[in-house]
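User: Structure please.
Assistant: Input sequence and predicted structure:
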Amino acid sequence: MDQANIEGVTLEYDDSGLGEPVLCIHGAFIADSFAPLLSQRDLATRYRLITYHRRGYIGSSGFGETVSLAEQAGDCRRLLSYLGVERAHVVGHSFGGAIALRLALDEPELVHTLTLLEAALAIGESAHLYRQALARSEQRYREAGAPTTVDEFLQARWPGYREPLGHVLPGAFEQAVSNAATCFSADLPAVIESRFGEAEARQIAQPALVVLGEGSADLDPRFGETHRLLLAWLPNAESFILPDATHFLQVENPLDMARALAGFYARHPLEAADA
């Protein structure tokens, strides 16, 4: 990957392809989780695809103290400016979805569309239990160590993940373990402290594709609740249920996810906004 050194922060990034720009913001643990999706022909041959490693992941700068969602959104803005991108489609997975929403609030002129792949939000009736579960995970990390806690965390969101993840992204589990300090010391506290809700969502007017894995609601009711609330709150939201997938949607079923994204972008092209 290339490196951008911006205002004292180093971000590893990849910028490939031609067409309308698409920025992908990864979630916790697996920094390269978008690789299977972005190799799909529906996207790779038609769009300029931009991915990066967030602070604390692989070769990007460390996070120091807890990095807020606003600061992470600022990293997105600065990276796009560095690459000469004035407006982009933005995709966020899990914690990356929370960053994408923050970016849309802080820099609305920069975000043309939003795709939210099960954004990590503490909202609705499940909010308190979700915050408690994340706090327990932080404590579990301190007590049991990274390999055990990462395995438990991933297993709860993608049952039986080890073999398919190792096939699609060799070394991804080891990468997740090496990045565990960032997840438990920076990412999870930022979700716990976030207070995104209906008032903030109603300010986001961009077309939004709200994605739920077909099997995710059976794992934890909060996935279904978050999906329903975002559809109700976001003024211009569309729903997509990704078949044969749980929380790691773009890794589990990249083909159908790529087709859904390509269709969404065809319905909301950048050229229409520029006309």
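The beta strands are 2-6, 9-16, 20-25, 47-52, 88-93, 111-117, 208-213, 237-242.
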